[in-house]
What does this fold into?
Amino acid sequence: MARKETSENPGRLKQIAQTYKMTKKVDSKVGLVVAAVGIVTFGVLLAIGFWLDHPVYLGILGFLLAFLAMAIVFGRRAERAAFGQMEGQPGAAAAVLENIRRGGWTTTPAVAMNRNQDVVHRAVGKAGIVLVGEGNPNRVKALLAAEKKRMSRIVGDVPVHDIVVGEGEGQVSLKKLHTTLLKLPRVLPGAKVTAVNDRLRALGDLMSNMPIPKGPIPGKGMRMPKGR
It folds into this structure.
């Protein structure tokens, strides 16, 4: 067990270091801001400790709170930097949806796609079915409408929501996608969510049902989706 813990700690430290390097490329002031938050938090608690004649106790508390505040600020700035780098990249919405599985959501990327690589992803949870489209807003709306109509025929009275990822009017930005899904009203019991997932899984999705063409690779006129 000791060997396992020793091997895991360097891994965590390496991950933190990599996250810091990635964040600093986008947010050059991240180190100064995080350090300032820690110093100010510790300084305020220590000053209160001297004022109350308990500098040791408040100093220890200040150190712990300073570490916590630094971790929170760093996490938020790192998340913001990550979203900034993902913005506009194909499959970015799918990556965000993958991170909401902890909230009881089941996500399926690329349930619908066109030749221009506009794509629709699906998430199923207690709020119902959420279809998330990314790509050209005009084209992806048509893709979403077709998929929403198909879902309505399959799942009946289960709510089907649609979201277009983007910065335009009526769209949801990538960094707000996670929050938007979590704010949707929960109307389905757990058993119903399981039943919907089982039904959709039985029907399959675009990627599993897409026939693989035989013969030579398609010519220049065919644009294939790029893997990430």
Remarks:
- Strands lie at 106-113, 119-125, 128-134, 160-164.
